[in-house]
Amino acid sequence: MVDGTNRQWLFEKRPEGPVGSHNFRWARSDIPSPGEGQMLVRNLWLSFEPTQVLNMSAPPEEGGYPLGAPMRGLATSQVLASRIPSFQPGDLVYGFSGWEDFSVSDGKGYWDTTKVPPGVPPNLAAGTLGITGIVAYFGVTEIAKPRPGEVLVVSAAAGGVGSVAVQVAKVLGLRVIGIAGGREKCDWLREDAHLDGVIDHRSENVAARLDALCPTGIDIFFDNVGGPVLDLALERLRPHGRIVLCGMTSRYQQAPSVPGPMNYPQLIMVNGRMEGLLGRDYFDRFPEAIAALRAWIDAGRLKSKEDVVVGLENAPSALARLYSGANVGKQLLKIADPAPPSPD
Ligand SMILES: NC(=O)c1ccc[n+]([C@@H]2O[C@H](COP(=O)([O-])OP(=O)(O)OC[C@H]3O[C@@H](n4cnc5c(N)ncnc54)[C@H](OP(=O)(O)O)[C@@H]3O)[C@@H](O)[C@H]2O)c1
C-alpha cells in the first residue's frame, strides 16, 4: 500500500464537438493497491494520440472508453509494486495507462505493456521510440517499400508520426516533401529535418505546390490526415505508386458520413496500391524498429521532435492541441521524473 493522493482526470462526457476540459472531471482518490496479477505504476509521461478522440466518441461495446473512469492513454510509467513476475519495482514500462498519478495495471491492453530498453529516457519511450515512431518506421519501410530517389509526400509532416516518417525516408535516400500547418512547423521541416520541399497548407495552395515540387508525380504518399489532401495525392500518383494509410485525423471529429476520396480510380490507372497500417500488428517487431530508430538518433540522423506540456492538470488541453494543430512534433505531457534506483 502506497500512502498519498491520486490525482485523476475522469472521462465524463462523450464529445459533441471539439474536445477539451469539458469532457473530463478532475478528481482525487486513494492510491490503489495491486491485486494478484497486477502492478501499481506511477505515470511519468503521457502520450497523446488523435485516435483517443475516436475512443471517446465510440460506445463501450465498440471499444469506446467507459464514462466515469480515469481517461485512458499511453504512458511511460515506473513500477512501484508488482504481483506480475515479469515486472519488478523500479522498472520503466510503456503501455496503456490512465490520466492519473498512479494506476493499477495487468500489463494487458490493445497491446501488452513492454519494458523500456535500458538507457532510453522515459520521454523518448513515450514518443519517438513508442508507437509513434514505430508506425512511422514500418509505414515507410514495410508498407511503402521505397527505392532510393523516389518522391515521398507526408501529410501532418511535423506531427509525431510525420516528423519521424519524413526523417526515416530521408535516411533511406528518398526525395521528401512535407505538408504541414503553419510557419513554425514548416521552418522545422526545412531547417532541422532538411526536407527537399515543404508546403504550408495554411498559407499556400497545396495542389499548385504539389505540382511545382513533384512535377513528375508522387511515388509514395504517407497519409496521417485523410480528406482533401488524400485526393490531391491520388490524383498525382505515379505508376506503381503507394499510399500508406496511417491515420485520418481530419475525420476523427466528424460524423461518419463524410464522403470518401474521389480520385481512387487513379489506383487502377497507375497500378497503384493503397494499404492501411496498424501499428499493433508489428508488436513482435517493436524491438527491431526501436533499435533502428535509436541507432539513427545516436548517429545524429534522426531528431526526436517533442512538444512537451508539463503537469497532469493540463492533460485535456494537451489532447486538444492535436486538433487545433498547435503541436509541433510528438505531443507529450510530463507528470514526474522516475525515482532513482534503490541503493540495495
Ligand atoms: N495506424 C496506426 O497504428 C497509428 C498509430 C499511431 C498514430 N496513427 C495515426 O497517425 C496520425 C498522426 O498521429 P500523431 O499522434 O503523430 O498526431 P500529430 O500528427 O502529431 O497531430 C495531429 C496533427 O494533425 C493535423 N490536424 C489536426 N486536425 C486536423 C484536421 N481536422 N484536418 C487535417 N489535419 C489536421 C495537425 O497538423 P498540421 O497543423 O500540420 O495540419 C495536427 O498537428 C493520426 O491520424 C493517428 O491516428 C496511426
- Do you know the CATH architecture of the largest domain? Alpha-Beta Complex
Instruction: Assign a percent range to the helix content.
Output: 25-40%
Give the count of helical stretches: 10
Strand-and-helix sequence, N→C?
A: EEEHEEEEHHEHEHEHEHEHEHEHE
Which ligands appear in the coordinates?
NADP nicotinamide-adenine-dinucleotide phosphate
Strand residues, percent: 25-35%
The third-level CATH topology of the largest domain is Quinone Oxidoreductase, Chain A, domain 1
| Structural Rg | 20 Å
Tally of distinct domains: 2
Low-confidence stretches: none
- CATH C-level of the largest domain: Alpha Beta
Distance between the termini: 21 Å
Shape: globular
Number of strands: 15
Mean pLDDT over the full residue set? 96
Structural class: alpha/beta
Write up what this structure looks like:
This protein is an alpha/beta fold. It folds into 2 domains: 5-127 and 305-334, Medium-chain alcohol dehydrogenases, catalytic domain (Quinone Oxidoreductase, Chain A, domain 1, Alpha-Beta Complex); 131-280, NAD(P)-binding Rossmann-like Domain (Rossmann fold), CATH 3.40.50. 26% of the residues lie in helices and 26% in strands. Strands 3, 4, 5, 6, 7, 14 and 15 form a 7-stranded mixed sheet that branches. Strands 10-9-8-11-12-13 form a 6-stranded parallel sheet, with helices on both faces. Helix 4 (160-171) links the parallel strand 8 and strand 9 (175-180). The radius of gyration is 20 Å and the shape is globular. The relative contact order is 0.16. The site of NADP nicotinamide-adenine-dinucleotide phosphate has 31 residues, from helix 3, helix 4 and helix 10.
